[in-house]
Recover the amino acids of this structure.
């Protein structure tokens, strides 16, 4: 059973069936208990009426009973002997005795003394004890039925203690319980069919948007057209949220795939130039060794090596590589990086670094960020580059500024895109591949920080790297 509708319909039907069975069983128990209580009440009333009659009228002579509504009545003495029965009682069970033939009262020494005036009817009484109840059968005038018997004790005027058993028929209880049970058994299958059908229809309607989403996703997968979107229902339920989340996922996937395509195209374009240049130089050198430009070939090889390293790092970042958790001293990192850059033709770098500014992360990746920012600043600076390391609250701040032409406001986010160079007139050899700032921002974000660009005091660009301080 792979259909959600079928599972829901079957589950709902099973739950309702169990609930109805439990409820029906409970109703039957309550009904049976109620009718049994009513039968016990009727039996008790009859038993007390007969007991009162015996207490008022019976002396030393035989006991006679009159049963209302022809209910079975049996009177037994303390020895369990039957001393009186109601009219037409032919058989009885479930009482103190099975006898239906009255036996004579005890005489002789068992009779009370004359001076006790046992024939005084005022001495007879009905016991105040709670009656005892039992279940049995009785045959009255040829008809056998089940009865609920109540037992009440009484004392006759002659001082004889007897127990009166009076029965109330259980036919009403049995008929009512049987009728209710048959009605439930007859109605249960119909109700189950109705519940299952309604659940099927409701579930089908509720899951129709899900089926539409599935069908659209199947078409998108077959066509590989990530610009398509699944239909969003106008409701505000879980299905609508699923559709919106699916569309958001498709949009993110489309952006990622498009970004990957541009990345591959741009990388191929960037690699083509140095490879073509290197091949040309080598072919010329093979034909005319004296014309081989060895420094140019080395420069192209170095550029290829740097570009390959940048592409490899971007691939690792896109794959979700997490930076290390080593303690990195930003001030020491800046001083070491600047000291390695000293040389002829280099733009002077002024460093202002506070001591003890540390962060958690990868020293190699952060050094790469600093190198890219310094390369960019030196490329655009007119005469000086400034680097500062400070601590602001819970953040470590690294700022790299220059006195160049700066970055226009409209381009301050675009420069962090991959393979973007604002100065189209600049050659690739001078301007690089346009990956440095993209790598710097990706690394900053992987370290839980930010990288932004603004305007320096000298009017040039100011790149600010903020990282959580250690």
């Amino acid at each position: 059973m792979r259909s959600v509708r079928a599972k829901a319909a079957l589950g709902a039907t099973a739950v309702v069936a169990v609930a109805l069975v439990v409820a029906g069983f409970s109703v039957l128990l309550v009904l049976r208990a109620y009718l049994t209580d009513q039968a016990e009440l009727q039996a008790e009333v009859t038993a007390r009426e007969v007991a009162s009659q015996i207490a008022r009228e019976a002396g030393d002579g035989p006991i006679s009973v009159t049963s209302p509504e022809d209910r079975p009545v049996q009177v037994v003495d303390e020895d369990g002997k039957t001393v009186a029965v109601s009219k037409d009682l032919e058989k009885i069970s479930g009482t103190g005795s099975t006898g239906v033939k009255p036996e004579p009262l005890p005489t002789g020494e068992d009779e009370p003394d004359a001076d006790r005036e046992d024939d005084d009817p005022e001495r007879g009484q009905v016991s105040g004890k709670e009656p005892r109840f039992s279940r049995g059968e009785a045959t009255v005038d040829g008809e056998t039925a089940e009865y609920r018997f109540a037992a009440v004790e009484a004392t006759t005027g002659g001082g004889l203690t007897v127990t009166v058993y009076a029965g109330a028929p259980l036919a009403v209880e049995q008929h009512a319980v049987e009728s209710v049970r048959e009605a439930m058994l007859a109605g249960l299958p119909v109700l189950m069919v109705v519940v299952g059908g309604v659940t099927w229809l409701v579930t089908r309607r509720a899951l129709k948007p899900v089926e539409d989403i599935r069908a659209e996703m199947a078409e998108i997968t077959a066509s590989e057209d990530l610009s398509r979107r699944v239909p969003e229902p106008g409701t505000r339920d879980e299905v609508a949220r699923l559709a919106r989340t699916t569309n958001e996922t498709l949009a993110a996937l489309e952006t990622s795939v498009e970004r990957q395509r541009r990345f591959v195209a741009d990388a191929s374009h960037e690699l083509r130039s140095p490879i073509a240049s290197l091949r040309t130089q080598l072919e010329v050198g093979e034909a005319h060794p004296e014309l081989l430009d060895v420094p140019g070939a080395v420069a192209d090889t170095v550029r290829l090596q740097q570009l390959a390293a940048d592409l490899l790092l971007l691939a690792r970042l896109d794959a979700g590589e997490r930076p290390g958790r080593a303690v990195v001293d930003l001030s020491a990192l800046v001083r070491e990086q600047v000291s390695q850059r000293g040389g002829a033709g280099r733009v002077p770098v002024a460093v202002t670094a506070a001591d003890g500014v540390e962060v958690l992360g990868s020293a190699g990746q952060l050094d790469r960020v600093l190198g890219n920012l310094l390369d960019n600043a030196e490329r655009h600076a007119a005469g000086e580059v400034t680097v500062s390391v400070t601590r602001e609250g819970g953040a470590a701040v690294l700022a790299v500024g220059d006195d160049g032409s700066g970055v226009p406001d409209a381009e301050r986010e675009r420069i962090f895109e991959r393979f973007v160079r604002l100065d189209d007139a600049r050659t690739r050899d001078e301007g690089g591949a346009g990956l440095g700032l993209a790598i710097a921002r990706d690394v900053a974000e992987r370290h839980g920080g930010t990288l932004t660009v603004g305007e320096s005091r000298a009017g040039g660009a100011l790149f600010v790297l903020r990282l959580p301080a250690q």
In short: The longest helix spans residues 4-57. Residues 323-468 form a domain with the Heat Shock Protein 90 fold (CATH 3.30.565.10).
